Amino acid sequence: MLDLRKLRYFLTVAEELHFGRAAIRLHLAQPPLTRQISALEAELGFKLFDRTSRSVTLTAQGRSFLPYARVVLEQVELAQVIAGKLAAGTAGQLALGYVSSIALSDLFSQVIQGFAQRFPDVQLTLVECASGSLGAQVADGRLDIGLSRLIPQGKEMQVLSLGEERLVAAVSSDSPLATQAQVSLAQLSAYPLILFPPDYGSGLNQSIEQLYRHHGQPLRPGPTGRQITSIIALVAAGQGVALVPECTRSLMNKGVTYRPLVEVDACAKLLVLTRSDTRHSLLVDAFMSVIRQTPIANTKLELE
Questions:
Q1: Domains plus CATH for the chain?
Q2: 181: which of 5, 51, 122, 162 lies 20 to 30 Å off by Cα?
Q3: Alpha helix segments (H runs only) across the chain
Q4: pLDDT attached to residue 298
């Protein structure tokens, strides 16, 4: 295996084309430098320099070898820099799971952008997950952090609440409800309610079902969609109504009108999930700090 120190010596002599000046740069006496270059040539099996009493020049083999030596040393320096960032928690990989109803929120985009700007050497992997499985994937380490609306079961999870997001009614633009300034659950109960499948968006479903029960309104199950976009498409097709986070307004689908609800408690939780044990990485802590410092501007979120 080639000695990196000898490669550095070779690169310095190749840049200076003078053993004396190279020795000064390397803080060496000239004889040891000459011996090290000779030893490297012996290892390689060819001469690197043609030397006379007046000049030093690279041989043809030396010129061909030079770029490879330079790349090796540059990669070593880069590895040292990355190692330092890994030790400091500013580089590495982070897996973030989220439910689809959160992806449209201002918080989601602001946090992702803020984290990428502060930690450009971190490879952030985004994984859309079903609410029911998100907590389990964080607990067993498949995900480092989860953004969810469902409080997971089990003591191995740490849950940070970022407050609640207002729900709005999504109705067909052809519906009489679209002409009203706001609608009530009593009015919505006359229509099929489009939800996520029970195994996928159970966090948002849970909030909606609890809201209907709390206000004593019957819930007429309608078709289901695995994505917020699918749910809104079903509304546009006249297949029912939906209660969605207010951030969904940004979709602006043709044929869909969003209306605020009379019920002031029509909200969905916004939660951050991490493991509660000591396996937190520095990157998880860094991401959590970005979340706490992110201004939630122009949204209905209130930090608790």
A1: 4-88 (1.10.10.10), 89-304 (3.40.190.290)
A2: 162
A3: 4-16, 19-26, 30-44, 60-88, 106-118, 131-139, 185-188, 202-214, 228-236, 282-293
A4: 31
